[in-house]
Amino acid sequence: LLRHYSDFFSMSKINLVVLDECHYATGSHGYARIMEMFYYRTPVNKRPRVLGLTASPLVNVRPSITQEKLEEMICQLEKTLDAKLAGYFQTSVTKSAEEKVVHYKNKSDPNDVLPPHEKIGLHYSRIKELNQLASLYSDFGPKVTGEYCECLVREISRYRYEKETRQYERIQEHLTFLVQFCKHQCLNSPSGGVSDKLQVLEQLLIKLLSQKKDQENDDTVGVVFVERRITALALHEYLRNKYKKNLAPGEQTIIKCDMIVRHSTQVFKYLHPSHKIGIESYKPGDEWLHQMKKVRDVLEGLRSKQTNVLIATSVVEEGVDVDACSFVIVLDHIKTSKGYVQMKGRARRENAKFYVFENNHPESNPPPISLSQAQEVEQRVRSFIETRVNNLSEVIETAKVNPYTGPSSSLEIKALHEGEYRAPKGCVEECSAKSLLNRYSLSIPLDNTSRSSRHAMLLHMPIYEGYRLIMPAHLPADVRVVVIPEELRPSGPVNKKQIYNKLALMACVRLHSLNLLNDRLLPLRRRDMHERLLTVALQQLPQTRERRGFEGPPKEPKQIKSVHVYAFHQASEIYEKHNKVLQGGRGLLCFVAISPLVDIPDFIYHHHEFEEVVLSLGQKRMMKVSKEEWDIMSEFYTKIITYRWKRRTRRHRFRYAQEKQLNGVIPPFLVSLLKDDGEFDYERMKTINMEYDRTEEERMEAMKKFSSCSKPRMCVPVYDKLAPYVCVGTTSMNSSAPFPYQKDIGSYADYLSKKRGHELKDKNSPMLAMQRMWQLPRRMQKENFVGAFGQLPGLRKRKAEELEQDEAADPEILQEGEINPLTNLATGLLPQEVCMETQLSDASLFLQTILLPQMIYHVERILISATFVQHCKSKLPVLGSYIEKLKLSDVLECLTAKSCSMTITYDRFEYLGDAVLKLLHTDALLASRDLQKWVAYLHEGDLTTLRSAMGSNDRLKDAALSTGLEQFILTKPLGRGQWVPPGIEAYLDERDGPITEELLKKDANNMQMFIPSHKVCADVIEAILGIVYLDFGYEASVKVAEELGISLPKNTENDEHNDKDKANKDHTAIHRELKNLATEFLDYGKFDNESLLLESLTHPSCIHEEVPCYQRLEWIGDAVLCLAAREWVFHNFPEIHVSELVVIETSLVCNETLAYLGYLSGVHRHINHRDPSLPRRFEEYERNLEEFGRGLWGTDPPKVIPDVVEALLGASHSDGGFEVGQRCALFILRSVLSVVKKQLCDNDPKLLKSQTREMMHPKQVIHEMAGRHLQVRTCREDVFAIQNKNCPVWRGNSWGFPNQQSSSSIGQVICSGMSVLAVAESTSVVAKNRACSLAVAFFTNNPVLLENVLHISSRVKKDDYQVKDSEEDEYYYEL
């Protein structure tokens, strides 16, 4: 791996190298080669740490070795490993077994040997294999050798070598001969063919195993070490035959043995399964001696006491984890001091025995090293190592846990005595406590990764360790560990089940006292948390709603009041020209108010005929009015608004509503008329009021009196009363004149008769010169409507209206008799007989009312904003002190809902304010007077639930209602039937027809349509917080939230307590690499509370750590990152809509981006975890990024990386405060921010929308393309292959077909039950993302493909779709 895959497995990418049995790191061993070739060639600052583990640091130490040589060997090992020797040498740590020598007498008789086999025609390799039997015969005698040869004859018949048939027959014949020879020798032997060594071994095993046989707790197990594999095989076969077979029913054997031998089938060639099956084939259920056993199964049998003796070669000395043994027997001498230490190390039980067999026959050869010599060497090495300085302290037991002294400690003891615990509405007993504790653990909100497997779930379940219980890692360390007190522990035999039940009962009591279980002793539901939040902790909302009333007009006949008058000016070259033509210099509309109005900024409106018109109010003038005069003006105001604004197709009428206006939120005002000298023109207003009430006959008669001396009048033809004209003069023509626009029509009279169905009484009726009325705008222009606020004017376009004639006439070409004094208006002629004056027939006055609704709407919005500021100053002084310093345009923007159909609404401020509120509530929960302790014990998911409840629409709506803010929210758009000018109300009149219940219900629904909803009220609150944050900072928004009652009462002692903690805290020692990480990744290395840095890197699997896991800090960091990203997007993209802002923000803060940034900075290398699946997932993520070069959506990063990134931000915010947290967030994102800014800000703003779309997640793009017609799903490839075996699959960079043997995931884009596109990937997330991305590319480059998909979806019903025949199937697939 290090040689050929250095891009994945280089030393610079590793932070810890563990070398087990590190004493081998000498000479040319692989350990030494790795250190020499790869470790020492890595730069010093990039080398990993090295941890070597060994029970015997020196190998082959002889008794004659000198102190100097020992020092040299130790120094060489330290140099090779670049490490220092350290160890435990206290007696309480290392418990030595009792060591004994066992003597036996095996005499070597030259006449008692196996028959020779060198001259029977065998291959040299076969002769070498048979030589092993000679040493076996010498050690154990003919009995064991014969039984083993008989086993060989039986088992080599399983396999026959293809090209050595004669060799096979010869060796089988020879083994059969040896079996007969050994049986003959056993008959002639006084010991029955068993050597003294074997007899002594059997006696010793029976003695050791029979000591506790009659006891209930018989757990004696041991290991017998032998030198050769054939010895272990033969001894196992002998003991198995003697002690296991031929047992009576129900009888238990004393010796239950098993063995661990490397490659047992390689002892003899014909045992290997690579050869063909022979005559005596293998039968299922046969128990073969020479077979490959799984070490795990053998060790499990030893642990479960199915076996009590393990026969093993040196494989068990090291590298295999054998349970602590009661005895260890070395049957074939001690070869080295290292082997002595390793074998003795297996005898780790109390009162364990260590036996070494030695042949004390005078003619026998001495052992390589005796037991006494090995003991002497070990003591010398031990004494030498103890003199070195790096001895470790005697702390290898589990960390000491301080007794819990919380509020429930006494209740826990009481529950242990009583065996149960009772709460107000529930109880739990010892027998049910464990299941309740598991239920609590399972109720914790976990992400999908944590619930993906049983092993992942176990990391979040309670852990039982002896007399203590460890609860999930999100709990603080002081409450996480539950320990049974010493005095309550049983003195006799321990029943683990009872101990675990007691621990679980104590844990349930503690969880209830911490309010993590409700009074029914069940896990908290979301409703429980909401109730605690709303009824216990949240402060009472302030009641500052003001029922104010404004000063009204004169009420008594002779009462005189001063009023404030503002002339209404409309500045436009074309407008002034038209006004001059209409002889409108006689007067001017004006706004009249009882109370003074604030300064109303001018604004620009773009009219179709007048082009750019500047609308403004003149300087304030003070005038006197009486009740009669006010009544004239109010009637005039009602009449002109009714004519200009009432929908002709609706039954509603308008009337003046004085009381409603006096109880409104803005000062009452109305529109009046001034003379040239600036005084009120009561006479003209009376005339207008009188003319408005005329009947149709009176208006027709008035039009008949129109002459060349008359001023222009507004009129309509009697056959079409919805087509008003401006009568600009008379002509010398009459209705019998030729009609110029259609050749088949003779005269104007004929046109009216044939086309309009109106017969003229007077065929020679005089013709009047007409011009079509001006366009009457019904809406506010969405773009750039407030010129005074610095926005650029924009031209609103509309379709040209048709002329009264069927064939439109060119206004630039005048026919006979037509005149065009009003430019930009279409001309025409109408017989005087068919003309009728309109209700508002004064053309000059009507000209002034064309843009009057827009101006009133504008004035109303400005007044509401100004009144809102005054309301805040008087009732909400904190908010008022900030609001009064803002521009009125910003306040207006905060109050404008999207329903107003304006381009500028509260959307952008609300978008930012939502993030401000999220962080604000995060800090409020952590510093809450009532919730601070409870919050410390909640999981991240529960904290998110609480935060959502605090910022819910209902809660914010209540705040808006209690403070009276909702009455200032602008929700009504400028539109007929939707908005009514102030002081005017719409009502139903029986004169227009019967008033039905359906009509009343419809009218009520229309009234309710624009009442601010819960969400609108909540959005305005968030918009206010957003604008306060932008102009005055985070602390100002915190104060405003507290005043509005949407925060939590703060613990006033919290800051002082934190300062004291920081001053007195014994900081946890933190490695310099973690400090470097904080400096390089966060640009913040000076943590006052360094335990926060450790907490941010602690995974939930680390249940034994003193600090809690990172989940609480991740929850904080999520809010920190959200606000930092939104503020950056808000400032850098001021011209785009919130929907595009959300796309950019999502790309910045998504898990894929954070994982990538964390990976580049090596954050994953510093995570403290115990999850064995994480390294593999890290490597797979790295391979997807580096080898395959995939983008963000093409990877499935381990969620732990973005979680830790957010946790680091949460740590910086908690330690350094708001400014530090925001600075760290922007520092982390700096590389991504620069790329986004360069790609979007440097290009044409018009392209921003399409460019932000490219940043959108491909699944979202698919949803926007054809969300109702396409679905995205995932499944396993083997399942997909069965269902869609002929469906092409995109795999890597090419097309293929699904594989039933693959375990990959398939991402599908589906239309009407059929797979349009399928992509195979290693994970379901990547498969889904790549399928969507590929589909987007196809549909973008092939629009016809998308049309075909939509065509299929429209033809096939989703509920009953089935392909009925192959032709239809082929048709759909062809599409």
How would you portray this structure in words?
With 1375 residues, the protein is of the alpha+beta class. Helices cover 43% and strands 13% of the residues. It has 50 helices and 33 strands. The strands form nine sheets. The chain has a six-stranded parallel sheet with strand order 3-10-9-5-8-6, with helices on both faces. α2 (30-39) links the parallel β1 (16-20) and β2 (49-53). α42 packs antiparallel against α43. The longest helix has 24 residues, at 165-188. It is elongated and about 160 Å long. The two termini are 49 Å apart.
Oligomer: single chain
Structural class: alpha+beta
Which parts are unreliable, with pLDDT below 50 for 5 consecutive residues or more?
A: 275-285, 394-399, 783-811, 1059-1068, 1358-1366
What's the number of helices?
50
What is the straight-line distance between the termini?
A: 49 Å
Helix content: 40-55%
User: Which shape, going by the Cα principal axes?
Assistant: elongated
Please give the number of β-strands. 33
- Biggest sheet overview: 6 strands, parallel
In the sheet with the most strands, the strands line up as 3-10-9-5-8-6
Which percent band covers the strand fraction? 5-15%
Radius of gyration: 48 Å
pLDDT average, as an integer? 83
